[in-house]
Design a protein that fits this description.
1 helix
Amino acid sequence: MTRCFICNRIKEEGTNHWWAIYLSITTPSDQMSLTIAPFGSMAGVEGSSYKPLCGNNCTQKCIERWLTTGSVEPAKVAGESA
């Protein structure tokens, strides 16, 4: 079962508006790059640590998070342990 990384929505069979977003390190500068691809193109990619996103709104939220914090992970709440 696939769930959206941002809103936790479950992907239904036959939906085609989902995206996959993943980070990779580009060489030789070792900078992080963000890649967005249609979700179906990520199916079966071994070793990929992509995050599924259910549509444009969640994709935009994830990109905004990346641009403002440099991470796609949600901010930790004060007092929350890892």
